[in-house]
Design a protein that fits this description.
single chain, about 210 residues, mainly alpha, Endonuclease Iii, domain 2, Endonuclease III, domain 1, 2 domains, 12 helices, about 60% helix, elongated
């Protein structure tokens, strides 16, 4: 099977099996999504969704959060992973949005990367989810699933995976494809024990074919 054929079959299956694929983080505007994504690093979306309602009520905008103290923010997010660092990043993020971007979340990756707590993955999430740009955010699920299925081969880091995926997936599908791979990795192609019996991609999956043999 050629790489082109593998991508075509994977995309066809995902379009049929997962016609609606979107973030499981709860948010109402770009600022809220940025906060949630920063908090979600090495933490479950379920936990973040438990924390953010009170946080958003206390700080409904970047301007409100920019006036807070680190300890105040920490008290709202103490149950997430690495709350001290994330509290500092959230305050830095809010101040940067207010001081540099008029309180608005920018739609340019270089500008997003100037914001504390925002790396390439987080920036790409914002670009794809909020602005529907052809940006592929690569987290541990996307990295693992892409390699297992055979969409990538020997990727050494998330950037290599990102470049390979975006070179083979049509631009208009990339925002949705990001969620296809995340959700598939979260619920089916799990890290320790992939649920191959309930996966519709076994016919093209490199990992499955190798282990079956």
């Amino acid at each position: 099977m050629t790489i082109k054929e593998r991508y075509a079959k994977a995309i066809e299956w995902f379009q049929q099996a997962m016609p609606i694929a979107e973030t499981e983080l709860h948010y109402e505007n770009p600022y809220q999504l940025l906060v949630a994504v920063i908090l979600s690093a090495q933490c479950t979306d379920k936990r973040i969704n438990m924390v953010t309602p009170a946080l958003f009520e206390a700080y409904p905008s970047a301007a409100h959060m920019a006036c807070a103290g680190v300890d105040d923010i920490y008290n709202y997010i103490r149950s997430v992973s690495y709350p001290n660092n994330k509290a500092r990043n959230l305050l830095g993020m809010a101040k940067t949005l207010v001081e540099k971007y008029n309180g608005e979340v920018p739609s340019d990756i270089d500008q997003l990367l100037t914001i504390p707590g925002v790396g390439r993955k987080t920036a790409n999430v914002i670009l794809s989810v909020v602005f529907n740009q052809a940006a592929m955010a690569v987290d541990t699920h996307v990295f693992r699933v892409s390699e297992r299925i055979g969409l990538t081969t020997g990727s050494k880091n998330p950037l290599q995976t990102e470049r390979t995926l975006t070179s083979h997936i049509p631009a208009e599908l990339i925002p949705k494809a990001h969620h296809w791979l995340i959700l598939h990795g979260r619920y089916v192609c799990k890290a320790r024990r992939p649920d191959c019996l309930n996966c519709g991609l076994t016919g093209i999956c490199r990992h499955y074919q190798k282990n079956k043999a």
